[in-house]
Write a structure and sequence with these properties.
This protein is of the alpha+beta class and 234 residues long. The chain is 24% helix and 21% strand. The chain is built from six helices and twelve strands.
């Protein structure tokens, strides 16, 4: 398991000690990320070894997981995956467990893929839940070390040119429709931090009326040959 190394003196992250505390602690007083640190038993790598994985995102259901011929350590890992999803479903969420062997990328005019630091968004109150069990974990970026890409003059000028318009309502809609307004560039002094393996996170998203800024994060910048990720997301 990867040790949890959070940025020092960063008050937007709060550590909790139970699922109940993770669920009930509000996003308030600037806190936009809650983390339940865990050191999980079991062999999650063995699960990956017994899966038939296609390139891209492979969704795993409980029936498939229970059908895998695993050692006791592998079965322990399966029990954890199923129990985590049960906890989230009982909380009214719809968790998805994915085995991920690569994501699509887009770079032009600005990156909007999951490897780019971004904020999740929703039209109503919402939040994102994440846990990486195997592979490289998700990464976070301090809000004070991030700058919206559309606020960078050179990038904004490029987007205006592509849009073929001016700084008006249509242009703002164009930025929103393409999710350009949700992606961030690290500042030169930025030090991204790891979400770690096995830790269950609840992070704030960008929604109208949110009392806190969204948590900026990304998928790890994996390359061909890197181990697949086992990721729970809701």
């Amino acid at each position: 398991m990867t040790h949890l190394a959070l940025p020092p003196d960063y008050p937007r992250i709060k550590l909790v000690s139970s699922f109940h505390e993770l669920v009930t602690t509000p996003f308030a007083d600037g806190i936009n990320a809650l983390c339940w640190p865990r050191t999980l038993p079991g062999d999650f790598r063995e699960i990956i070894q017994h899966l038939t994985i296609s390139p891209g995102i492979n969704t795993l259901d409980d029936a498939l997981l229970r059908s895998l011929p695993l050692s006791p350590a592998g079965r322990t890992a399966i029990d954890i995956l199923i129990e985590d999803q049960r906890l989230l479903r009982e909380h009214g969420l719809d968790p998805i467990l994915n085995c991920i062997d690569g994501y699509p990328r887009d770079e032009d005019p600005i990156p909007t893929h999951v490897f780019s630091f971004h904020a999740d968004s929703a039209p109503v109150e919402a939040e994102t839940w994440l846990c990486t069990y195997h592979g490289f974990p998700s990464e976070g970026l301090r809000n004070d070390q991030a700058r919206r890409r559309i606020d960078i003059p050179e990038t904004r000028a490029q987007l205006l040119k592509l849009h073929g318009g001016e700084e008006d309502h249509d242009f703002l809609e164009y930025l929103t429709d393409h999710c350009y307004d949700l992606h961030y560039a690290p500042t030169p002094d930025a030090q991204p931090f790891s979400f770690g393996l096995g830790n269950l996170w609840r992070i704030a998203v960008d929604w109208p009326g949110s009392p806190v800024p969204p948590c900026i994060h990304r998928a790890p910048d994996t390359r061909p040959g890197d181990p697949p990720r086992l990721l729970l997301i809701s």
